[in-house]
From TrEMBL:
GO MF terms, alphabetically ordered: phosphoric ester hydrolase activity; zinc ion binding
Superkingdom assignment: Bacteria
Listed PANTHER family: PHOSPHATASE YCDX-RELATED
InterPro entries noted in UniProt: PHP_dom, PHP_phosphatase, Pol/His_phosphatase_N, Pol/histidinol_Pase-like
Gene Ontology cellular-component terms listed: cytosol
Domain Polymerase/histidinol phosphatase N-terminal: start-end pairs: 5-79
GO biological-process terms attached to the record: bacterial-type flagellum-dependent swarming motility
Protein name: Phosphatase
């Protein structure tokens, strides 16, 4: 198994990331990817960009140097399951949205509080995927949430970066992937890269998925056809 697109990456618009859009595209091209999602943090993160970053995303060309660029956001899940405070208008250009827990916007709490927040996100039509749900600080009722993902059209992300930076993530991500397999929930495998050199680096995640015999057909970004089909389903033509 391999990926053809990395749908979760950050640019210098979030100041703890270090490459420009062009550099991230160059990183994707160097890895042989055909598409990249630029998903900077929502404005509620301390160093996230102003909401104007998102309202102007449509000036980024659809394709740069043969790599399709998907305009995205990584929302911060806030207490109760609210997302970043921003206008609907500023989100108009956004084509792919992840929603994730980050300590700065949601202090790790109880399993019930995390599950309740994720349940609210499940119903939020602005969100396409749960970002790094394997984070052990945000324990939740995995079966309860994952079993409902198809009903609400949500993807689950297996975030390869988590394996390296969040202790205990491997076990959680394995359990999440097993449940996605059980409930036939499509996933995306991403790097969460914050610099050009790590775009497309998802070996840890792929190794785990292979270990549990995860079906390739359920990995949206594992082939050009599957990726194209997913975005066409959202009314977006990525290629040609
Ligand atoms: Zn994140
Ligand atoms: Zn991220």
């Amino acid at each position: 198994m391999h990926i053809v697109a990395d749908l979760h990456t950050h640019t210098i618009a979030s100041t703890h990331a270090y490459s420009t859009v062009y550099e991230m595209v160059r990183g994707a091209k160097a890895k042989g990817l055909i598409a990249i999602g630029i998903t900077d943090h929502g404005p509620d993160m301390t160093d996230g960009p102003h909401e104007w970053h998102f309202s102007n995303l449509n000036i980024i060309p659809r394709e740069i140097d043969g790599v399709a660029v998907i305009r995205g956001i990584e929302f911060n899940i806030c207490p109760g399951g609210a997302l970043d405070r921003m206008s609907e208008k500023s989100l108009e250009p956004v084509e792919f949205a992840l929603a994730s827990f980050h300590d700065c916007c949601f202090a790790p709490s109880t399993r019930a509080a995390h599950t309740e927040a994720l349940e609210a996100v499940l119903h939020d039509k602005r969100v396409q995927a749960f970002g790094h749900p394997g984070n052990p600080k945000f324990d939740f009722d995995m079966e309860h949430i994952i079993s409902q993902c198809n009903q609400y059209g949500k993807l689950v992300e297996i975030n390869s970066n988590s394996f390296a930076i969040r202790k205990g993530s491997r076990e959680n991500c394995t359990e999440i992937a097993r449940l996605c397999k059980k409930y036939q929930v499509p996933i995306v495998v991403d790097s969460d890269s914050h610099i050009e050199y790590t775009v497309g680096c998802v070996d840890n995640a792929l190794e785990m998925l292979e270990e549990i015999g995860f079906p390739e057909e359920l990995v949206v970004n594992s082939s050009g056809e599957r990726l194209d089909e997913y975005f066409r389903g959202r009314g977006l033509t990525l290629f040609g």
